[in-house]
Design a protein that fits this description.
UDP-N-acetylmuramoyl-L-alanine:D-glutamate ligase; nine-stranded mixed beta sheet; 8 helices; 20% strand
């Protein structure tokens, strides 16, 4: 864990989860556990628990814009992680603040829909994600469902994961990690194998699959952990490997709360 005295600042731009298992709340827990100072810009407020999202309210865009201006004016931010961005207008607001910020590692978790099927990014937002946000990101971390939406490719194998990663890379993302946790056939590879495409070659990341329903916020946790590691100066490969180990421990230590998918333990 990094010393807090270094004051490494990492920003999350995401929605608020009233159940505290995902979103802003999960990101800030992850940042603290990685010894970095967490900043937050809230894009939306959700009524959410372990059973899913029931309602969502997107904050006024001038408020989102003001939050971004405030944190960027005062803090030296090493990395930024985005989660729920909800619409094309929110994405446009976020993109505007990164046009002149070339030294910040931008990590995008392309949140599109909740586990219970509640839409967290509208159709116009998906188009803006592909055309405006992905071209400026350092690293993007879709799961299989998100990768299928972004590429139109049905993913059933590691080969499909690699093809989808190339397509997302062609949209502009410098590095693409597609998470294989939902892959039904890994063809001799461990379940939970993730594929990284760095623009030139593929890297596979393995983890022992943990069979549990306590998976709420797992995507937020992984991307926030990677952003924390990158901000601390670690290489991309090491940032991913250590983040996967962190998630693995969180899954193993998770406990049942609520009546649905309990959050990973942090």
């Amino acid at each position: 864990m990094q010393s807090m005295s270094r004051r490494i600042c990492v920003l999350t731009i995401a929605g608020s989860d009233s159940g505290a298992g995902a979103g802003i709340q999960s990101d800030l827990k992850t940042f603290k556990n990685h010894g970095v100072y967490g900043l937050s810009v809230i894009t939306a407020i959700t009524a959410q628990n372990t059973r899913g999202v029931q309602k969502s309210y997107e904050l006024p865009h001038n408020i989102i814009d003001a939050q971004l201006k405030s944190v960027f004016d005062d803090f030296e931010i090493k990395a930024v992680k985005t989660g729920m961005l909800s619409s094309d207008k929110v994405i446009n607001t976020v993109v505007k603040h990164f046009n002149s910020k070339k030294n910040i590692k931008l990590v995008v978790d392309p949140v599109i829909v909740s586990k219970n099927g509640f839409p967290l990014l509208d159709k116009a937002g998906i188009k803006s994600l592909k055309s405006k946000l992905l071209p400026i990101v350092y690293f993007v971390t879709p799961n299989i469902n998100e990768a299928e939406v972004l590429t139109g490719i049905k993913i059933n194998s590691i080969d499909d994961l690699e093809t989808a990663a190339i397509v997302i890379g062609e949209l502009g993302a410098q590095n693409v990690l597609i998470k294989g946790g939902h892959l039904k056939k890994s063809i001799g590879l461990p379940l939970g194998t993730d594929v990284l495409f760095d623009g030139k070659k593929f890297h596979l990341f393995y983890a022992n699959f943990v069979k549990t329903k306590n998976t709420h916020g797992i995507g937020c946790t992984l991307s926030a952990a990677i952003a924390s590691n990158l901000a601390s100066g670690k290489s991309l490969d090491k940032s991913i490997a250590e983040a996967k180990n962190y998630v693995l421990k969180s899954l193993k230590n998770s406990v049942k709360i609520g009546k649905g998918y309990s959050p990973v333990e942090q």
